Every structure is written in structure tokens, then in C-alpha cells.
Amino acid sequence: MKLFKGKLTMPGRILFLLAGVCLIACIFFPLWHLDLEAPQYPEGLSMNVYMDKIGGRIDIINNLNHYIGMKEITESDFPELQFMSKLAIGFAILAAIAALTKRAWIGTLNLFLLCIGGGLGIYDLWYWLHQYGTDLEPSAPITVAPFVPPMIGSNKVANFVTHTGFNLGGYLLGLSIVLMVIALWRFNVCEKKEVTVKHDIRS
Predict the structure, then answer these.
(1) Does this model's pTM top 0.85?
(2) Is 35 exposed, middle or buried (0-12, 13-18, 19+ CB in 10 A)?
(3) In the chain, which end has fewer C-beta atoms inside a 10 angstrom radius, N or C?
(4) Burial of 116 (0-12, 13-18, 19+ CB in 10 A)
């Protein structure tokens, strides 16, 4: 099977190097965002999730969440922020090794592990959205029904409209996977074994 025994051609090697660049770049851009709109905040409030931190107006968002009994959002509650960027660097190094050695099996392993990591990351995002939206304090000043903000889309809670979706970092991560798939599918050739045929010479 060429995904494990093949060799990457030059275009495939370049695609793997580009995939590695995308993996490094996605560390510096938000993976996912949440934007809040309300009459009292016409400029909007945003929260951006990076691989190693949470940015945006978290202080104001936490103050607002307090009124509906939502737990305060703090980076210390997300242990995955401590190692996600290191994993991205590891995947980028593995992509570079696949490109330099031309070995398709290394690229296939990298793609497999990256897909597993991406799937776990999406589940992790859903899990935290579910936890924060459904574990509400019953004695909060404002009572709202438990809810789960969508990973992509919009919903309304009280007088706030929430818009969520992936950001540039998330798109770069997805692009790295696409580049690896193209490289392994389109620019990967099986190694040809040389066969020596011996002829009997009879005089």
C-alpha cells in the first residue's frame, strides 16, 4: 500500500513543508471565537481561543455571565492550553521529517495523529461549551434555561446574541490536514524494486 511503502515526490514534499508552516502559524492566531451582541454593547464583546491562551474581553464577559449563574472563564480551568502549541510544533517537525526523508509512512502517521488530535480538539470545545452552558447556578439573579452555545452559528440568550465560529488559526490547522491528504494521495509513488533476471547461457 503506497500510503505506507511509497515515496513522496517533490510536489508532495513541498506540500508537507507547507503543512508544517501552517501548523506553526496556527499557534499565533485564534482557533475559535465567540462574539456577543447586545444593545448596551453596540461595539460587541469578543472572546478568542488560542492554542495557549484565551483572549478578548473576558473580564466583562465573566461579569455578564455571573448574572445568569455561569461559571467564570479562566485559563487555569483549561489544562489543554499548556500543551496544544507543543503538539502543533511536534506535528510540524514530523511533517518536515516526512518531507526530508520522502517516506510516505511518516507522513501517513503524522496525518493520522493530527486527525485524531483535531477530532479530540473539536470534542473538547463542545465539552466545555456544554459544561459552561448547562452547569448554571440556580440562585443566579437572572434565571435562564440551560443552553449549549453552538460551535459554529448563532443563538440568543436573554438580550444577547452570540455568534461563534472558527478563526484563522483553525482554518490553518484544517489546511495543514488538506495539504497532507493531497500530498499522500496525489504525489506519492510506490518504490519499484529492481528485479535481476539471470539467463542461462548454453553453449
Answers:
(1) yes
(2) middle
(3) C
(4) exposed
Q: What angle do CA 64, 66, 72 make, to 5 degrees?
A: 100
Rounded distance between C-alpha atoms, residue 99 and residue 30, angstroms: 27
DSSP strand pairing (160-166 vs 153-157): antiparallel
Instruction: Give the contacts of 139 (CB within 8 A, at least 6 positions apart).
Output: 69
Amino acid making up residue 140:
A
pLDDT, tens digit, for every residue of 174-203? 999 999 999 999 988 875 554 444 445 454
Is the distance from CB of 167 to CB of 33 less than 8 angstroms?
A: yes
For 194, residues 6+ apart whose C-beta sits below 8 A from its C-beta are none
Rounded (10°) CA dihedral 22, 26, 27, 31: -160
